[in-house]
Amino acid sequence: MRVTRLDIGGLRRFGQVTLAPGPTLNLITGDNGAGKTSILEAMHLMAYGRSFRGRVRDGLIREGAPAVEIFVEWIEAAGRIRRAGLRHSGQSWEGRLDGASVGHLGELCAALAVVTFEPGSHGLVTGPAETRRRLLDWGLFHVELDFLRVWRRYARALKQRNALLKAGARPAELDGWEAELADSGETITRSREAYLQQWQPLFATEAASLAPALGTTSLTLQPGWRHEEMRLADALLLARGRDQLAGFTSVGPHRADWKIGLSALPGREALSRGQAKLTALALLLSQARLHAELAGEWPVIALDDLASELDRHHQARVVQGLIDTGAQVFVTGTEAPAAFEHLTEAGGHPIARFHVEQGRLRAEGDAR
Ligand SMILES: Nc1ncnc2c1ncn2[C@@H]1O[C@H](COP(=O)(O)OP(=O)(O)OP(=O)(O)O)[C@@H](O)[C@H]1O
């Protein structure tokens, strides 16, 4: 998919800006604090319903503005033009997709696929389980039409069971919601397992190319209960007493994680920050490739501050690899990364260059 228009209003230092990106490589430069990351952040917000820099109400909305407003138009591989709008005030949000209101942010997220690599991405490897769970589910939301529905069933049942636990409900009152949790939870787990199995060889190839020092790699699901020993229904039943004391559900796919195995290192804790970044990049790029295989088109790739994240050699390899796939790519930097020095076009199209200055965006060659 390719973004053809991006309108941003009220986001960080932007009053109102519009970007008409090129079809392949887009380079956004500007001084520190100019607003480069904010452009990628706007796309990410539409595609994930959240920023990669914290909560919407914690500074994403421009000082004095009532809400952040984003509009994205993109074209799918099959030629269908899609349009999505999101208005977020910090407390509430409104979304539109192809002219109709959406009732769940997940509908916007499932429509527009963006993969973002940014300075905090190493958290995918070294951070909490929730970050990895979200990444895994992101992939599934896009390629399994039913995943969002099952996931919502699970979330609803979890909320109900937790409320009953907190209220000190009788054990028999938990039966119905536990059956629902077990049924939807087993389905989620099967999907996650199958997805990780498909992801694994692509990740192994990407990691071997980007970070051969890590050795052989593997991805293993930790489903959130002792899955090899018992069904989720039994695990929930077994955990009842403990859960009643704690007031929340301690087992199930909401507690899942997945393990990144690296044969050359004792564990992810042993990764240097640079190695963790390369591992995260290998995860994101291989997931983008998996998405392309399963969904039939590449997601949009956003690489924030590439030059400060990767050395020249890795920059060139990553950018060239992406150009070869034909994906639409956005790269930000205080100046053009070394990898672009000799590039004037990508995939047969000129590189689209933009400059951000004091909250204003200018396309190169545009005198405004
Ligand atoms: N809520 C807000 N209201 C107004 N301005 C804000 C708000 N939040 C952040 N800013 C400003 O917006 C800018 C954020 O820019 P952003 O992080 O996108 O810049 P950048 O070009 O990526 O910078 P760097 O190269 O330093 O990473 C900063 O100048 C910051 O001071």
How would you sum up this structure, described in words?
With 368 residues, the protein is an alpha/beta fold. It has a domain at 1-113 and 299-368: Rossmann fold (3-Layer(aba) Sandwich). It is 42% helix and 23% strand. The protein contains ten helices and 16 strands. The strands form four sheets. A six-stranded antiparallel sheet has the order 2-1-4-5-6-7, covered by helices on one side. A hairpin with a 4-residue loop joins strand 5 (81-88) and strand 6. The longest helix has 40 residues, at 171-210. The radius of gyration is 22 Å and the shape is globular. Adenosine-5'-triphosphate (ATP) binds at residues 12-13, 30, 32-38, 59, 61-63, 305, 334. Keywords: ATP-binding, Cytoplasm, DNA damage, DNA repair, DNA replication, DNA-binding, Nucleotide-binding, SOS response.
